[in-house]
Predict the 3D structure of the following.
Amino acid sequence: VDTIATLQKMITSLEKSKEDLEEELDASSAALIDLKEQLKKKTSVVEVTDLENKLNKATEKNGMLSRRIVELTEANKKMKDQVKDLGENLAKSSIMHAALQGPSVIQSSSTVLVSTDPLATCDALISELKNQIKEIVVTRNAALEEIEYLKSDGASVAS
């Protein structure tokens, strides 16, 4: 009888221990689920932060490219104005050539052209203007190529 009572107490004690362990297991499982959810949130925050950083870098680069395009566009406009001015100078020189009699002196940006022949003086001026126009056109074309490159590079950054 004592043995049976002792065994019943042991069974009751084991059942109580089992229930306590099950409750502890349930609490531990709930804590684990909470930790997993927190980890997912942290991972999402890290991903959002990474995306924000990438967006900021792309925005910064787009701003830089936009400023460069504006600079090149302004340089292109300036070069067009220079070509226009050179054309006007050439037209004036042609008119002057027709009116010139006798020796003439023409100053160019790098040399002084002196001739007793107005035709030779005008030819030298025209040659100098052509060289200046070629330099402007080469610089303008390089600027346009850079604009196209920046536009295509900017488009690849945006995507």
Q: What stands out?
A: Confidence is low (pLDDT under 50) at residues 101-114. The first helix runs from residue 2 to 99.
